[in-house]
Structures are given as C-alpha cells and as structure tokens.
Specification:
alpha+beta, four-stranded mixed β-sheet, 27% strand, Glutaredoxin
Length: 359
C-alpha cells in the first residue's frame, strides 16, 4: 500500500449546482448586517450568463438573516449583494457559513466563519483589497502560497479565476501565472476529474501553453515535462543553505523527496528512504528531502535524527520550489541521475529498486 498523504482538500467545482445531492440536506448562509434596517440582501449564484438571484431577504432590526439552499454536489462560490456591493463566500456541501458585517462595511469590512474554506477566501479578498490600496509587489507571491497549499480547493480556483477591474489577477498569457493555473488544473484533473470545471481549467492552460510554445498537438498534457533540473535553495537543520543543483553535481544519484514529517505515513516513507540510503550512500547516493511542515519545531525534531540532507520549505519560501516539480500531493519523490531527472517514483516501496538500476 502506498503511504500517500494529501496536502490538498477533497474540493472541486461544478456548473450544475444541485445535481446528485440528497434533497434532505441543505447549506445555509446566515449572520448579521448591522445598521441595514429596511435594506434588501440578495443571495446570488454564478450562471453562464452571469450572476443571478437565488433568494433575497429584507433586513429588519439588528440585521440578522438566514437563507438556505439544497446541498451541493460540487463546491461553489456564491455571493451576497447589498446596494451594489458584494461579499463572496464558498460552500463545499451542506455546511453553514456565517457572515458578520455592517451596511457601511459591506464588501470591505466583514468576517466569514463556518468552514476553513470560507475563512481562507475572506483572507484572499482582504489581501486583494489591501493591495488595491497601493502598489503591492508581494500580492501574487502571497496568493500563490495559498494556492499551492491547497490547489484542488474551491479557494485555489477562485484565486486563479479572480479579476480586478476586469483584468485577470493570474493572466494566462504570462508564463509564471500560467504555471499557477496549471498547478490548479493538474490537481483538479488528478482528484476531481469528473468535475465540470476541470475541463475549463485544462482548456485555459493548454490553449495558452500551445500559444506560448507553438505546440499544435491535441494530446498536450498539463503535467510538467521532466527534462530540466530546477534549482531549490533552502536551509538545512544547521542553518546552511543547500542548493539542489550543487548536491546533484556532487553525487551520482540524488533522491529528491517532498514530505510532511508530521503526517501519519511519514515514518513508513522514511523507512523506505533509509533502506535506499544505507544500501547506496557509499556508491554515490544522496537524499535531498524537502519538508513542508507548517511547524518548524516539528521539522527540526524529526530532521535531527535523519542521516541525509533535509531542508525546510517555510510558509514564506517560494512556491516555485513545489510548482516547478509539479508537486500537488505529498509525498512526491524523484530520482536524479547525473544532474538530470530520471523518473518520478510514485510508490515509496520501489525507491531502492529504482536506485539499484542506476548505481
């Protein structure tokens, strides 16, 4: 059994909102809009011709409200509209999302609660609003970090499809932005293949990829070509920066492994790595292990007991360290031979066998 542990949520999106669900289950959006007595609050959903009204309520007194709809087959982003201003929120299935705001702060000063996705999406929009207030060169980096942490989620889709003043935040005509779109498309294709929006994401990625590289084959794939060795520069447990390219140049073979030490399957994975390391280290094998744990202390505790090279992907490290190698799930393992990627090893139990073929 492969010891896989996912870093992405079981999330996806659909154009058809209500199909395939238990009609007895419902999702709810509720909360309060202070100082909005007498105003009409509308609940809207995305459609092929634009947003349309699903429900509405007249706010009275303290502005409390509650609206409910049948449970979803796929996650979706809805919005509340008041006097031409919007608050966007996600619904995964049948949860309750709570909105707290005021008439004056509607769309600019509010909180979402009830799910991790709701809180994350509110954080994304807040970050975008902060950037809109002035020049912000770090906006894309910050959103990319959120995206790569959960590329098959409703929030990741929201990020790559979001527009500011009619322009896409992630422009598919730009190679760096297209790579982010490709990461989301890849995650959806792997884990939500039947989701109607998977095809949309793939089409955006492939059509722009063909334009950028001049390819014409309809069999183009969204998976990264394993031809270049992208460098990774991260710090090890001793505080020394380690370059993957340098490590690869000094060893006949390198196992590049992405992992989470705090995951349940981590001990089993490291056992397989240890078998390969003990057997082949003296013949020219090194392991370059990238830990993406959110807790640096937990990483240090585990790294202290490992004989191979371990480096830490901090929450603010470049997302390209993962995106360049098309990493959307952990663990992910690659075999590098003579400075070039030889193969991606999907089954940790086969790591030693793969190394044995080249050493």
């Amino acid at each position: 059994m492969k010891p896989y542990f996912r870093i992405i949520s079981a999330a996806a999106i659909a154009a058809a909102i209500l199909t395939g669900c238990d009609s007895s289950q419902r999702w709810t959006v509720n909360g309060t809009v202070a100082d909005a007595d007498g105003s009409t609050l509308m609940l809207e959903a995305p459609g092929r011709a634009g947003w349309y009204v699903m429900d509405s309520v007249r706010l009275l007194g303290n502005g409390s409200f509650s609206m409910s709809q049948p449970a979803l087959q796929y996650p979706e982003v809805f919005r509340l509209t008041l006097d031409g201003r919007q608050i966007y929120f996600p619904v995964d299935s049948s949860e309750t999302v709570t909105v707290t705001t005021s008439a004056a702060g509607f769309g600019s000063d509010y909180t979402l609660a009830g799910s991790v996705s709701a809180e994350m999406l509110a954080g994304v929009d807040k970050r975008v609003r902060q950037a809109a207030a002035g020049e912000d060169s770090l906006l894309k980096r910050d959103l990319s970090d959120i995206l790569i942490s959960d590329p098959s989620s409703i929030v990741a889709y929201y990020i790559v499809r979001k527009q500011i003043d009619g322009r896409p935040l992630f422009d598919p005509s730009r190679s760096a932005d297209l790579r982010m779109i490709g990461a989301v498309a890849n995650a959806y294709d792997q884990y939500r293949h039947d989701d109607p929006r998977t095809a949309q994401l793939k089409d955006i990625f492939l059509s722009n990829k063909r334009v950028s590289v001049g390819a014409t084959s309809p069999r183009d794939t969204i998976y990264a070509a394993e031809v270049d060795l992208f460098d990774i520069k991260l710090y090890d447990k001793k505080g020394i920066e380690q370059s993957l390219v340098d490590v690869a140049s000094k060893n006949k073979a390198v196992i590049l492994n992405y992992t989470l030490y705090t995951a349940d399957a981590s001990p089993a994975l490291n056992l397989q790595l240890a078998k390969a390391y003990d057997r082949f280290h003296d013949r020219g094998l090194e392991i370059y292990q990238v830990a993406a744990d959110p807790d640096e202390y937990a990483w240090r505790q585990s790294a202290a007991n490992l004989p191979w090279l371990t480096v830490y992907q901090t929450p603010v490290s470049p997302a390209s360290n993962l995106l360049n190698y098309n990493v959307t799930v952990l663990p992910a393992t690659f075999l590098i031979v003579n400075g070039e990627i030889r193969e991606r090893i999907d089954d940790p139990a086969k790591i030693a066998d793969a190394v044995a073929k080249v050493l």
